[in-house]
Design brief:
- Helices cover 33% and strands 40% of the residues.
- With 171 residues, the chain is α+β, with helices and mostly antiparallel strands.
- Strands 1-7-6-5-4-3-2 form a 7-stranded antiparallel sheet.
- The protein is globular and about 50 Å long.
- The protein starts with 15 loop residues before the first strand and ends with a helix.
């Protein structure tokens, strides 16, 4: 009698985790996209928090193919992360892919003009395990899913409010 020795996946869900959030912003879609695509602002924010960030492409204009190498301390260990812009569709959407030792991730930001002065921002983050260690990380996130989801949505909401405030100061 022969047995199949391959590990079984129950629907494939234990290797993937997804977070989504949607916020309405009192600002025109063009302004919101310009802020979301201000990659230098995000680089400076990461540097202020102690990360090392290095842009690794040679593109003069923002667009697909932009990439960064980041190194930061998380839970007492140094982590390396490679980020790549895979979609850049002004003023509608952008998508980034991230690769780390144990996890892959994708973040998509989609914008929808609700009116001339109001924009809906949808943020979708998907994490995939690359190894057993990554599966353990995802499992611990799933155990704290409600708390992690609440924190994710709160951060997106705070970012949306910050975008509104910056628009009010400029206009």
């Amino acid at each position: 009698m022969r047995r199949d020795c391959r590990p079984r996946q129950r629907g494939g869900t234990e290797r993937v985790m997804q977070f989504t959030s949607r916020e309405d912003i009192e600002a025109p879609i063009e302004h919101v996209f310009a802020e979301v695509a201000d990659f230098q602002r995000f680089e400076r924010a990461a540097l202020r928090r102690g990360a090392e960030v290095q842009r690794t492409d040679s593109l003069a204009e923002p667009g697909p193919g932009m990439s960064w190498q980041a190194r930061f301390k998380l839970r007492g260990r140094m982590r390396d992360l490679t980020l790549r812009l895979v979609r850049f569709d002004p003023p509608n959407s952008l998508a980034l892919e991230a690769v780390a030792a144990t996890l892959d991730g994708q973040m998509t930001v989609e914008l929808l003009a609700l009116s001339r002065w109001r924009t809906r921002m949808s943020v979708d983050v998907t994490l995939r395990a690359r190894s057993l260690a990554g599966r353990l990380v995802l499992q611990s996130l799933k155990l704290a899913r409600n708390n992690v989801t609440k924190r994710f949505r709160l951060r997106v909401a705070e970012y949306a409010l910050d975008l509104e405030e910056r628009y009010k100061r400029v206009s």
